[in-house]
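ARCHIVE RECORD
Type: protein–small molecule complex
Small molecule: adenosine monophosphate
Source of inputs: curated submission
Record status: active
Notes field left blank by submitter.
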Amino acid sequence: MKIATTIAQVRKQRKQWSREGLSVGLVPTMGYLHEGHASLVKASVAACDRTVVSVFINPIQFGPTEDLAAYPRDFDRDCALLEALGADLVFHPEVSELYAEDFCTYVDMEGLTRTLCGKSRPTHFRGVCTVVTKLFHIADPDKAFFGQKDAQQLAVIRRMVRDLSFPVEIIGCPIVREESGLAKSSRNSYLSEKERQAALVLSQTVRLGQQLTAQGEHRSDVLLRAMEDQLCTQPLARIDYVQAVDGVTMEPVEQVKGGDLVAMAVYIGKTRLIDNFMVGDEVI
Ligand code: AMP
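STRUCTURE (tokenized, with ligand):
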């Protein structure tokens, strides 16, 4: 497995693979990898001849009061995991490699980015779309792999690729959870033992929502009220949002149907966690 820190190194490798007629999968990450990331890498290794994983904490997707400085990192451990998974190239640039000091060009999206996480993180998806665009230009992947854990991000990337005609296929991968139900996240490392227990209320609430919809409850207000009530039983939890939206447009729906997204963001102490389910998916 090679490690590249510059755009030029990645481009050179990509050119060589193109000459050899090899297909390339890209897995964008911010590092501090866990089994959720590993599932994306495995999917890429299975589907593509070569797999590039980017490990880059993208500053422009963090708001001014968010956890950029505290975001966990362990690049050596990430590399050991990626090597074991069969990744071929890790792209680990410095911030200055991707953003010149006078950088002022962004990829922005209307509509889909205004609801859910976009409401509480107004510049987040502009940062995500911009960095993913750059990674696509640099690595020129045939396929790129994203987790359903960040369901709005996945919908936004799919739309961006369609709207801007990127020649890349987007593959969504299911949420990987701990035995307890807690969705794997690099941010789980912020949680104390007590908070980790409290955080189980998210997946318990996902399960409740899934059970209610499986039983035929389609009214969003009834569904969301029941989910909010469940979250409120946990004193350490503070709801940012719980919403039911169309799975493509991310616009709120009054009645949920198959393929719609029911998503939440909840603070456990100071840590903001997200979880979700698509209506019709298997109950967790
Ligand atoms: P991050 O490093 O948090 O930016 O995540 C990089 C990619 O891994 C994104 O596409 C995430 O959706 C995906 N991912 C993160 N956690 C999980 C998980 N628990 N299950 C599946 N995919 C995940």
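CURATOR ANNOTATION: DSSP finds ten helices and nine strands in the chain.
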